């Protein structure tokens, strides 16, 4: 990030009123080289994205925020193991099994959200511990791509701590950082707009 910021400042030239020892031709050359470097960085990120798009993602960001009708929240099955088969006659009301299922589903969704929030809160104190907790709780997949998608899309995460996690020199953090960068799409964006999105 510091490198990109430095290149941006160089490409913009010497601020008005600032003193410099550069001659005008030298300043023009320096600005041009900085701009070329920025374009090369963006092109590299675009190449990574094109490679990534060729690989189907078996796990989307659904694990971050469970859908209302998603089977991942653990909707219980009927006792006979087949929801399409008619239930056997009983002395109780016919709708009782559905009522129990609905209550259980609501409770499971509530428990899911509470555990997810607990993981986010832990991440905002200790990022590495938070990710480990969320993986163990099956709220986030264990692959770099799934962790990157969670960091990018989940609400409530401290952006400074996301940066701290991505900046770790450990192998997993580096893989997540690369997957995070790969997830950006800069097609159709102007250079300055793409840089702002990336930063």
What brief labels describe this structure?
about 200 residues, mainly alpha, Annexin V, domain 1, 8 helices, elongated
Any chance you could write out the topology, listing elements then pairs?
Layout: H1 2-12, H2 24-53, H3 96-123, H4 127-136, H5 144-153, H6 159-166, H7 171-182, H8 191-198
Helix pairs in contact: 1-2, 3-4, 5-7
Protein name: SEC7 domain-containing protein
Membrane topology: Peripheral membrane protein
Pfam families: Sec7 (PF01369)
What does this structure look like?
59% of the residues lie in helices and 0% in strands. It has eight helices and no strands. The relative contact order is 0.12. It is found in: Cytoplasm, Cytosol; Membrane. Residues 52-99 are annotated as: Disordered. Residues 105-199 form the SEC7 domain. This is SEC7 domain-containing protein.
From the spread of the alpha carbons, the general shape counts as: elongated
Helix content: 55-70%
Strand/helix succession: HHHHHHHH
Can you summarize the main beta sheet? none
Per CATH, the architecture of the domain at 1-48 and 108-198 is Orthogonal Bundle
* Extended strand count: 0
Kindly state the mean pLDDT as a whole number? Answer: 74
């Amino acid at each position: 990030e510091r490198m990109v910021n430095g290149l941006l400042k160089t490409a913009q030239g010497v601020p008005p009123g600032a003193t410099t020892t550069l001659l005008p031709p030298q300043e023009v050359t320096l600005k041009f080289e900085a701009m070329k470097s920025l374009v090369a960085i963006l092109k590299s990120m675009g190449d990574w994205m094109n490679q990534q798009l060729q690989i189907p993602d078996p796990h989307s960001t659904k694990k971050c925020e469970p859908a209302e009708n998603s089977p991942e929240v653990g909707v219980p099955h009927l006792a006979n193991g087949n929801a399409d088969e008619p239930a056997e006659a009983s002395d109780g009301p016919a709708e009782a099994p559905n009522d129990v299922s609905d209550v259980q589903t609501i409770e499971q969704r509530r428990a899911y959200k509470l555990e997810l929030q607990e993981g986010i809160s832990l991440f905002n104190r200790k990022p590495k511990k938070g990710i480990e907790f969320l993986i163990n709780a099956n709220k986030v997949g264990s692959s770099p791509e799934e962790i990157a998608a969670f960091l990018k899309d989940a609400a409530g995460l401290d952006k400074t701590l996301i940066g701290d996690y991505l900046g770790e020199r450990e192998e997993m953090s580096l893989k997540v950082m690369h997957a995070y960068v790969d997830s950006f799409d800069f097609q159709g964006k102007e250079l300055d707009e793409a840089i702002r999105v990336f930063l």
